[in-house]
Structures are given as structure tokens and as C-alpha cells.
Amino acid sequence: MLDDSLLGYLLLNLGLLMLTATALTEIKPLRTILKRQERSVSNQLLLGLIFGLLSISCTYTGLQFQGAVVNTRVISTVAAGLVGGPLSGICAGLLSGVHRYLYNPAGFTSLACGVGTFCFGVIGAFFYRWLPRISHRNAALVGIAVLSEMIQCGIILVMAKPFPAAVALEQAILLPKMAVNSVGLVIFMGMLDRLNRNLTFELVEQRSAALFVAQECLPYLREGLSNREALQKAADTVRRNLPNFQVAIADREQILVASGMSLAGQPLPDFVRQAEESRKLSVIRNYQGERQSRRFQEKAAIAAPLVWDQRAVGALILLTPTGPNLILEADLLTAESLAQLFSSMLELGELQHQVDLRHQAEFRALQSQINPHFLFNALNTISALCLTDPDRARETILVLARYFRQTLSINESFVTLSQELSNVDNYLFLTEARFEGTVHVTRQLPDDLERLRLPPLLLQPLVENAIRHGGSSDGHRYVDIRIEQDQTRAQIWISDRGHGFPPEVLAKFHDPDDPSYSGLFNVQKRLRSIYGDQCVFDIQSTDHGSTFYLSIPLEPPTAAQTLSEGR
Fold it and tell me: pLDDT tens digits, residue range 481-526?
């Protein structure tokens, strides 16, 4: 009957411990401490203090029995080491052990129980690294609890006097304590595990929501912080998907746009400036900026910095309702996640802008390199034709004007094969007017000239090079243009029937960093910049002529592909 009463009291003691632990895990600062994966010294000491106080509470709720205090102190003390690490276990064990001795110094088991309680913390600290690697976790926890009780039993039998009283005590309490504390340790650690899982699920939900919103904002954020209209659409998108938030986006000087509040155009509030300077979240839990509203509601203001290249360029500002039933920490996670994703998107947009500027600069450089001698020779040809064939001279002038207008006014990144061949035809017409009767061009073209989109002024330098260096011994110049298309790629061959290139010149062609031949160098450089590994460019040369081979995708690469290739 006595054993049944003792077992029932231990179960009651266990229930009180679980109730206290459950209440503690609902305290937000404690939840934050428990969820940390990396345990600092201060974090471990704080957890040791908390678990030590739990262990002390078990002493006060324990059962006075045969000069001892029977309780569930082992659970919280061992758990301190298992959860918080070595310092937590030792701190909790020392704190609770000293208290146990001072609680009743005259008791014949007080010193032994104090030493045993300290050992509980040491045992938890010992198994801190070992427990996560065990597959049968609950069985291991039962074993740890049983081991702890056996060590406590041994310490009492060695230190407590008189020995017969110690034996009688352990005969009465050992098995009930083993049973209750083993189950209690499993339940207690399970509670903490569920807390961590719930925190993980909460984090995943917030990250998922932020990712969904960020994906919808991507088309607008690519425009950067300078496009107010696009930024306004991004802010409206956030508010539409997260209606509890009022949203604003700022740069380093002012609020650029706002949705749901009237901050647009105002200077930066201090908390926003603080977030940008520290590159950390800045929070005002009782924001006073919207009190002019007739339906005033307590709000928190969150400023999350927008960062790229290790510097803050702006901030995402969220106003969110606060109250007893609302969890601000979840909103902080949402703000932080959104700001991180927005920062990445703005940075990608800036990188793409830089890529576009570089492509434009390369193209403008190519346009500026149109050979002045070609224009001089064309004008001389026209001058001669004015005397011999005025009609053809007039036609040549029109073609020359069309050629330069088309060449110098191109602003698109990619043109159709039809447009590119039109430019090549204009060039060939002017060249044939100069080398009358000696330029022979053959073409093998696909039926659909609109499928392939390629960078402008890509083929004309290759054709020009074939004409300049492809003269045969009889003074004639033969150029063969062959283009084939399959489902995804285009293959282009431009061949001449000249004497080929000397080996040293050919070696320079194959060196992507040797600009000796500016036309071919620019072609290779542009292809590498635009297509990366998606492009194949090769030059084959023999004594009977040379062939320029080019293989590119039918569709131009997207901005994401361009950035992922590191171009």
C-alpha cells in the first residue's frame, strides 16, 4: 500500500513538473533560447539556471519519506545537460544540488542527495553529443534515467548513515523512482522536441509565404529602386498577399512608395535609418505614426534592410497589428525573409542591368569600328559610277545609306536571321560594286528565317573577313554562306577559297584574349559574353580556304541564364 502511495505521489510530482515546463515553454524569450542550435556560454548558463530552478521546484513539491525527499528532480537536471550542453548540465546540477543540501542539512541523505543531483547534471552533459546519434532515442533516455537513479542509489548507500536506514529507503523508493522518472524524462524531452518542431514548422511557413510573395514581386524588383511605378506594384503585391501588413519601401534618403499608409515621399524615420545603418531588423513595438486614423489600432513597425554588395541600399517597412492574441515574432520572420529575398532580386536586377550595359557598350564599340576605309572605298566607287553608270551610282548611294542607317540605328539585343541577312546583303552589294564581277557568293539558307534570333552585326564581320582574306590566285573571291537549323540550335558556316591563314595567325584566332584581329576578336568576345558555354565558335584553315563555324541556340538566353553563367 505504501509503494502505491509513493508511486502516486511521484506521478503527481511528475505532472506538476510537466505543467510547469509547459508554461515555461510558452514564454517567448525562453522559446527563443531553446531553439538556438549553437550554444554560447551565456546561453548554456542561462539554460542551466532555468533548469536548475525547475529542479529546485521539484524538491519543494516532493514527498517527505523516511528522512528523505522523494521527487522527480532527476528529470529536469539530466535534461539540462541533454538540451543545453555541458555548462547547462553542470550549472543546473550544482545549483540544485547545493539547494538540496541546504534545504535540510540535518537529513541523513541530504549530502548524498546533493552530490547525486550534481551527478545528474554531469550525466546529462556527458550524453549531450552522444544522444542525437542514437536511433532508439526513447530507449536511450530510459537507460540514462535508470543509470542516474542507480548512481544516486550508490551514493546514498555509500554516504548516508546509518547504513540500514539507507538500504531500507532505497528498497522502498528505487523501483518507483526508476519507473516514473524514466517515463518522465521521455515525456519531458518529447515536449522540448515538439517545441523545436513547432518552431521549425513556423519558420518554414513564414519562409514559404515570403518566397511566394517574393516570386510575384520579381518582375517589379528587377527594375531596381529607381523605378517608382514598379516599386509601387511590388508594395501593392505584398499587401494584397499579406493583408494584415501595411507596406513601404525606402532608399537611403526617403520613403519611396507605400501601400496602405501615407508615408510615401517622407524622410526616413529614425528606426528605418537605424536598420539601414546596422543592417539588422529594427522594431518599434508600439508605433505611433498612424494615430491620425479614426480606427486606431496598436501596431508594430518593422524595418528590414535591403542589402547588396555588403551595403544597405534601402529598407522594407512593415506595419503590423499587435495584441494579446498576435505573435510578433512570426511577423519578424516574414519581414526578415522578404527583405532577404528582395535584396537578392534587387541585386540580380542590378547585375542584369550591368550585363545589359556591357552588351550595349560592346555593340557600340563594334558599330564604331566600321572600317572607315570601307566607307572611303564605297564613296570612290560611287564617284566612278557617277561617270559611267549614273543609275547604278544612285542605287549604290541608296544602299550605302540604308546600310549605315541599319547598322548604326540598331538598338535591339537580338534580331531575326532575316534582319541580319538583310544587313549582310547591303554590305555585299556595296562590296560587289567595288570588286565588280569578282565577288561570288553562294547561300544555303533554311526556309524559316524568323526562328533564329541572334545578336546584330554578328555575320557581317565574318563575311567581310572571308572576302578580305579569301581571294584566290585568279583574283576572284568566293564566299559560301550555309545555315542550318534543328529543333533547338542553328549551325552557321562561312567559307572562302583563299590560301588559308598561317599557323601563327590561326593560333591568335584561337586565343580568346588576343585582339590582333579586331573583327573576329569582337565576334568571339560577344559570343562568350552573351552565350557562354552554349555557343561553339571554331575556325578551320587549309591551303584551299578557311571556314568559320558557329553554333548557337535558336532562342536568346534569358537574363537568369546569363547571370547563372557568370557572364
Answer: 999 999 899 999 999 988 887 777 777 666 656 555 556 777 777 7
Distances (CA, A) of 255 to 248, 267, 302: 7, 6, 14
- The amino acid sitting at 485 is Q
Q: What is the pLDDT of residues 316-359, one digit of tens each?
A: 888 887 654 445 666 777 788 778 777 777 666 555 555 555 55
Query: Distance between CA atoms of 387 and 382, rounded to whole angstroms?
Result: 9
Tell me, what's the pLDDT at 150? Answer: 93
Give which of 467, 491, 488 is closest to 545, Cα–Cα: 467
Task: Read off the pTM.
Answer: 0.42
Task: Provide the grid cell at 26.
Answer: 510558452
DSSP 143-193: HHHHHHHHHHHHHHHHHSSSHHHHHHHHHHHHHHHHHHHHHHHHHHHHHHH
Distance of CA 543 to the CA centre of its chain: 54
- At position 80, the amino acid (one-letter code) is A
| List of domains in the chain | 2-201 (1.10.1760), 222-349 (3.30.450.40), 369-564 (3.30.565.10)
Separation CA 274–CA 280 (nearest Å): 8
Spatial neighbors of 513 by CB under 8 A, at least 6 apart, are: none
Run of H or E including 133: none
